[in-house]
Amino acid sequence: MNSTVFVLVHGAWHGSGHWAATQRALVGLGSASVAVDLPGHGFDAPLPTGYLLPGQPGLATERSRLATVTMDECAEAVVETLRRVRHHRSVVLVGHSAGGGPLSLAAEKAPRLVDRMVYLTAFVPGGRPRFLDYLGSPENAAALGQGLNLGDPAALGAVRINPISADPAYVEELRQTHYHDTPVDRFDRWRSVLSPDLPLAIPASPVTLTAERWGGIPRTFLRCADDRALTPAVQDLMIAEADAAFPGRPFTVHTLPGGHSPFAARPDELAAALVS
Predict the structure, then answer these.
(1) Longest C-alpha distance within the chain, in Å?
(2) CA 148 to chain centre
(3) pLDDT for res 1
(4) How far apart are CA 222 and CA 251, in angstroms?
(5) Domains of the chain by range and CATH?
(6) Strand (E) positions, the chain?
(7) Span 60-77, mean pLDDT?
(8) What is the pTM assigned to this prediction?
(9) HSE-CB for 89 with a 13 A CA cutoff
């Protein structure tokens, strides 16, 4: 056993349970881990009232009960977990996709609680402060998933998808975007436990970083070579812009094969990359 603990922060619409296979693999490699549920995610996430009803009435128009969730609240959920595990000699904070925002703000708030940050194809606000600034960039124009969002995010207060849609074309777009290299016979189980709402604050709120706090923590970026939700080109852009803004401690970069969700497609490889 080693004395490293990994604190795992999920991305949009996911929850702590999606890390379970990776956590089992980490234990096999001698490392402890704990997965965080960000506000509005996980099995306790509030759902739109019609989400589980026949026909899903009002799904595209009902304002989200997560509309008031703030980026600061999401970061505080991460900081609270970091405080609980600080007795380990080494704390590695890992974030996936949209989880890079709360991860970054948590590290900025409490840099002494983090020994290394790992961005798993995740938003890095080093160059541009909002995730939306990168999602809408020309480098991400080839990304899939534009047809997944329901309604008007500003009116809903959330970026809403429909993981349990009965429309085969919609389901296939969801699979191709996030899980194209996950075994097909497991995909329906994975999508069934996604939450429909991502609080709008997570992609839309600016995250301000400083060289003295966030910039002083060693950081690694795990690229996903065939990512269809956050393209390799925009991953590289985030790395380059963060390194330019914080040149004192540039990213260490490693590339993983496959798509946006290695915790589903190849958790053993992901765990090995984290431990290394």
Answers:
(1) 55
(2) 17
(3) 55
(4) 10
(5) 4-275 (3.40.50.1820)
(6) 4-9, 32-36, 90-96, 116-120, 158-160, 197-199, 219-224, 252-256
(7) 98
(8) 0.96
(9) 5
